[in-house]
Amino acid sequence: MKIVFDFGGVVFRWHPASFLARVWPHRIETLEQGAQVASVFFQNYGGDWGLFDQGLIGADEVVRRISARTGWPRGEVETVVRAVPDELMAIPGTVVLIRDLKAAGHTLHFLSNMPEPYADHLSQTYPLSEWFESGIFSGRVKQSKPGAEIFSMAERQFGAAPSELLFIDDHPANIDAALARDWQAFLFTDAASARRELVSRRLLNA
C-alpha cells in the first residue's frame, strides 16, 4: 500500500482562523471572526488564492488582487501572505505517524495544494525527501485538488494503480475526488484518530 499525505492541516499546521487572529489582531478578536475573514481572504481556496495555489499567479499578484477585491490595505494583505510559512509548522503527532508507517515498510508520498513559495520553504526547512518517496505540489504542476488531473498525475508519478493508493486529507471535497478515482481515502481530523484508522486497516500495529 502506498500512503499519500496532504500537507496543510495534516502534516503541517494550517488553521486559518487562529492564524489570521494572530497576524491581524487589530481586525480579529475571536476565532469566529477569524473564520469569517478567512473565507473572504482565501475564498475557500478558489478565486485569487486558487490561482496562487496552482502557480498561475505569484505572491505579488495575489496580494494585489486580494487588496483590490476586499479593500484591505495592500500592506496588511502582504503581511498575511508573508506570514504563512511561520504557520506551516510540522504537527508532531503526524511526524511520528510518518516515521511509524515508514518503519512498517510502507511507501509514502504527498499531494499538496501549495503555492510555489511555500513549497520551496517546506522543501528547504523539513526533510521531505527523508519522509516521502516523492510528492506533488500544486504550484509546481499548475493543477490542484480536487481536480481530476492532479490525481491522474499522482497515479503516474507514484507508479501505482488507484486501488493501491490510500489518501489522507482534511478536506471532504478532496477525499471525494480521490474516492471517485477508486483510491482508498479517509478524512484527517487529528493524528491520533488517523493512527486508529490506520490500525483498523491493518497498516499499523496497535
The termini sit apart by 18 Å
- Biggest sheet character: 5 strands, parallel
Report strand order across the widest sheet: 3-2-1-4-5
Q: Residue-averaged pLDDT, rounded?
A: 97
CATH topology of the largest domain: Rossmann fold
How many DSSP E strands?
A: 5
What is the CATH domain class of the largest domain?
A: Alpha Beta
- SS-derived structural category: alpha/beta
The appropriate CATH architecture of the largest domain is 3-Layer(aba) Sandwich
Low-confidence stretches: none
Q: What share of residues is helical?
A: 40-55%
Q: What's the helix count? A: 12
State the CATH superfamily name of the largest domain.
Answer: HAD superfamily/HAD-like
Shape: globular
Element pattern in H and E: EHHHHHHEHHEHHEHEH
Radius of gyration: 17 Å
Total domain units = 2
Strand content: 5-15%
Describe the structure.
This protein is α/β, with parallel strands linked by helices. The protein is 55% helix and 11% strand. The protein has 12 helices and 5 strands. It has a 5-stranded parallel sheet with strand order 3-2-1-4-5, sandwiched between helices. Strand 4 (165-169), helix 11 (172-180) and strand 5 form a beta-alpha-beta unit. Helix 1 crosses helix 2 (31-42) and helix 4 crosses helix 5 (74-87). The protein is globular and about 50 Å long.
Features:
alpha/beta, 5-stranded parallel β-sheet, 12 helices, Rossmann fold, 206 residues, 55% helix, 2 domains, 5 strands
Summarize the model shown.
With 206 residues, the protein is α/β, with parallel strands linked by helices.
